[in-house]
Specification:
Length: 500
């Protein structure tokens, strides 16, 4: 069975055709020379590109945000409480929500447990702050987490950070029933397909979503046509993290293996204190030895290791660990594993050089910079203007030869692959953005590369998996990129199958 996509614009060339067979690109050339095919799809000049890869996704949470309570647009505490009230009235079971951000609220404070209890009564409720590294929980949910009051990050007002937050989040997602969870995962995969995303990297872990959640997602992706799911499991090798990687055939032992938190919650680990809270520099979650052990175990097993690192102190700790393992096992062994880091938002030139030398991939989220970067955003508030301006140095990373992959970290920011590409180009700090084609490459090929699954000749070559997106535009790719357009996805192929 062969499929010919003909009269397509590929890159900047109209009048092209692509033949797909056996899930792969079998032929690529001028439409007039196209081989005979069993099926022909004439696209009237539509732009054809490799499908996007979103390299950092939390499918269940993103789906719960799509199908559930979304507080991103609440402009005041009052409005947020009203939205929660409406949701509570219309639903049963655990109340899950995300997206509240008190920084612009006239009340000058965020949601508390008392606010929530007044609305949800005895129902468990968990509402993540916009950065998802802190949250507020209702008393009924907190009651399900024995010992939570003794954990770091606990606060009697129900605003939780650090370990207290992780424990409560685990309880919250544990309370989602299987039907609710499957519907959420399906919503995410459908939304991804509608946006031309052919692959998502699911960042699972014991504190994020659980093994059952990940196994369910992989099963769902396998049993129906839709985006591919490449799974990551964020648990230290010393705590059995590699077992699940093997069992479920995951792409790596990392992802959201949290070395620190996030800027918004003052939990990203910095080498110097926060500008707006000089008493804290955030917190490191692991001992250096834990990280060395993880990187060593992964490297010995030929498995990709990875970590969530946001602050410069967290990055320094990881780099020290990779360096130690490189010295012990050799540079080639480390490079072969292509270890990867999520976020890497504070990286100085010396660290950039080490990432490049050790072949470590940077999985970055340009929408973070668009939302919080620049001289007046939340990062500037937290870090001061100087440090904020230096965050997410995409151009510097790319120029040094560090491989980049773009992602959304949905539900932290919505699935929006074109938006991510444009945000990577239009960096809030002049000079720090990527060139348009490099940004597009990081959002497509970069994702395959980051999971060690790339085709050597790139995503649009004979032999490459036929993961292709056809767009509602006849403009060239250059024109789409130059115009910052976000064309709608007309058709998505994954492994040569038309999935929408
Ligand atoms: Zn994440």
């Amino acid at each position: 069975m062969t499929l010919l996509l003909t009269d397509v614009t590929v890159g900047d060339r109209p009048g092209r055709a692509v033949q797909v067979a056996g899930g792969r690109i079998a032929w690529l050339g001028d439409a007039v020379d196209a081989p005979r095919s069993d099926r022909v799809l004439a696209a009237e000049g539509a732009l054809l590109t490799p499908a996007f890869v979103d390299a950092h996704v939390h499918a269940t949470a993103a789906g719960l945000a799509l199908t559930g309570l979304d507080l991103h647009s609440s402009v005041s505490l009052r409005e947020a409480v009203e939205t929660v009230t409406g949701h509570v009235t219309a639903t049963r079971g655990i109340v899950l929500g995300t997206g509240w951000d008190e920084t612009g609220w006239p009340e000058g404070r965020g949601l508390t447990r008392a606010d929530l209890d007044a609305v949800v009564g005895d129902r468990p409720a968990y509402l993540a702050r916009v950065d998802v590294h802190s949250a507020v929980a209702s008393t009924a949910l907190l009651d399900r987490v024995p010992g939570v009051t003794a954990l770091p990050g606990w606060s009697p007002d129900g605003q939780l950070r650090l370990d207290a937050h992780h424990a409560v989040r685990q309880a919250a997602y544990g309370a989602v029933d299987p039907v609710q969870r499957r519907a959420a995962q399906r919503a995410t995969l459908d939304a991804a397909a509608a946006l031309g995303i052919g692959t998502v990297h699911e960042m699972a872990g014991p504190e994020v979503s659980g093994a059952e959640d990940l196994a369910g997602l992989l099963a769902l992706a396998a049993e129906r046509p839709g985006p591919r799911v490449l799974g990551y499991w964020g648990e230290l090798a010393g705590r059995g993290g590699l077992v699940l990687v093997e069992e479920l055939g995951l792409a790596g032992a990392g992802g959201d293996l949290f070395c620190d938190g996030a800027f918004g919650s003052h939990t990203a680990a910095l080498s110097a204190p926060y500008a707006d809270r000089p008493g804290t520099s955030g917190a490191l979650r692991f001992d250096p030895g834990d990280l060395v052990e993880h990187v060593r175990a992964c490297t010995l097993a030929g498995v990709q290791a990875g970590f969530h690192v946001i602050g410069d102190a967290a990055l320094a700790q990881v780099l020290a660990a990779v360096g130690e393992v490189a010295a012990e096992l050799g540079l080639a062994a480390v490079r072969a594993c292509r270890h990867r880091l999520e976020h890497v938002e504070m990286v100085d030139p010396a660290a950039v050089g080490r990432l490049a030398r050790w072949g470590v991939v940077a999985s970055v989220q340009p929408a973070f910079d668009a939302a919080w970067g620049g001289t007046e955003g939340m990062y500037a508030e937290r870090l001061g203007v100087e440090r904020a301006r230096a965050t997410n140095p995409f151009a510097e990373l790319a120029d040094a030869g560090v491989a980049l992959a773009l992602g959304s970290d949905a539900p932290v920011t919505p699935l929006d692959p074109w938006g991510g590409v444009h945000a990577a180009v239009d960096h809030r700090t002049p000079g720090a953005g990527l060139r348009p084609f490099d940004a597009f490459d990081a959002a497509t090929h970069g994702g395959w590369h980051a999971a060690r699954a790339e085709h050597p000749a790139g995503p649009l070559a004979v032999g490459a998996p036929a993961d292709l997106a056809l767009w509602e535009t006849t403009a060239t790719l250059s024109a789409v990129l130059a115009g910052r357009a976000r064309p709608a996805c007309r058709q998505l192929l994954v492994a040569g199958e038309v999935v929408r």
